[in-house]
Backbone:
């Protein structure tokens, strides 16, 4: 029964120990690095914190796998630990990756700056034009990588085509599902082999830990876990406890953020000072139809540009009172940032311009405040 039911029930009950440990309703923190030998015959089965198989990590992993209706999950020290370890597991010297052209800056930099050191190659693809992908396929292509909702322009790939293309060409499909979360999209249900998350964001939701997750096919996740064990990107017990606690309210938080972002995006689209709004819930968004058909919610992330450019963006950031000017996203509080100075600061200006990321682009992670207060604050800051 612990993995049965709808996602709201799984958030509370999936993966929980049966019977409860000493009757504790809340999973205790096992603040121990090592455990007594119990006859294990495989090194990877030894209970040791670096091997990500201690009680807190194990219970949390089972819960996260259940949320996406996937076979297996592992937790990692950060979102980039999840992403980089996945690449380092799927690819070997000489292998090739197809990767979405608009990405989180950390992923973009890892691919463009670090791949060559490992002997990997890559080609960027336009995620909404699947007819162009075949021409970039090589005999050494091992995987295709996209984001459910891309950071920071909110591009939504042709997700059905991605999964189908991977299967047709016998390569692994990987998706960064951070922006959508399992509430809005569950990749395994749509044929994806693997999903990765920065659990720092929506899964935890309270801006107080750094964590990552890999979810998907058991054979692939097990290989990634063994590579992670050597790279050392394990999650500590206290972070696991906080993520375990935070994820239980995921449905409540994300659905409120969906609603708030939807209303804020429509307000911004109508405001005379705003040049452009990027939000898949808007009918003017280029991939609105894809998002409407595949996603159960449009997410809590949006970005926009003002007609007077970077100077106006700086003035807005200085005037807005409710949003916190800070990096990261997915927390209960509304956050605002300039990607050119935070998530995508690692790209040089020419790279950012080529991707459509201007110096005046403002990214908003919408929180769970009363939306009326957010609208009033944005209106005042814009005027």
Residues:
């Amino acid at each position: 029964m612990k993995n049965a039911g709808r996602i709201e029930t799984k958030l509370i009950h999936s993966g929980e120990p049966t019977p409860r440990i000493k009757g504790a309703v809340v999973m205790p923190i096992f603040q121990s690095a090592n455990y007594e030998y119990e006859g294990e015959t495989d090194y990877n089965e030894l209970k040791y914190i670096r091997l990500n198989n201690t009680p807190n990590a194990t219970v949390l992993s089972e819960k996260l796998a259940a949320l996406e209706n996937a076979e297996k999950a592992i937790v990692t020290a950060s979102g980039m630990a999840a992403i980089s370890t996945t690449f380092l597991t799927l690819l070997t010297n000489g292998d090739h990756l197809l990767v979405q052209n608009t990405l989180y800056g950390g992923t973009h930099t890892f691919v463009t700056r670090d791949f060559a050191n490992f002997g990997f190659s890559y080609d960027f693809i336009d995620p909404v034009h699947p007819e162009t992908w075949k021409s970039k396929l090589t005999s050494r292509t091992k995987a295709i990588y996209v984001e459910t909702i891309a950071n920071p322009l909110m591009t939504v790939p042709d997700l059905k085509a991605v999964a189908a293309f991977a299967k047709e060409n016998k390569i692994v499909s990987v998706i960064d599902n951070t922006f959508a979360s399992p509430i809005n999209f569950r990749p395994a249900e749509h044929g994806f082999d693997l999903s990765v998350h920065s659990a720092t964001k929506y899964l935890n939701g309270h801006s107080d830990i750094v964590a990552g997750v890999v979810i998907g096919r058991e054979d692939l996740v097990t290989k990634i876990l063994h590579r992670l064990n050597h790279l050392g990107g394990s999650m500590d017990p206290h972070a696991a406890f906080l993520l375990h606690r935070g994820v239980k309210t995921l449905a409540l938080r994300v659905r409120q953020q969906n609603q708030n972002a939807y209303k804020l995006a429509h307000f911004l689209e109508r405001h005379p000072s705003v040049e452009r709004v990027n939000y898949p819930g808007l009918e003017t968004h280029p991939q609105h139809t894809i998002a409407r058909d595949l996603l159960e919610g449009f997410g809590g992330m949006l970005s926009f540009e003002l007609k007077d450019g970077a100077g106006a963006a700086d003035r807005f950031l200085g005037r807005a009172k409710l949003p916190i000017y800070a990096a990261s996203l997915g927390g209960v509080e509304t956050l605002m940032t300039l990607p050119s100075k935070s998530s995508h600061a690692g790209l040089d200006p020419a790279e950012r311009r080529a991707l459509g990321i201007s110096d005046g682009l403002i990214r908003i992670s919408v929180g769970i405040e009363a939306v009326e207060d957010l609208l009033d604050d944005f209106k005042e800051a814009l005027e």
Observations:
- The domain at 7-247 is CATH 3.40.640.10 (Aspartate Aminotransferase; domain 2).
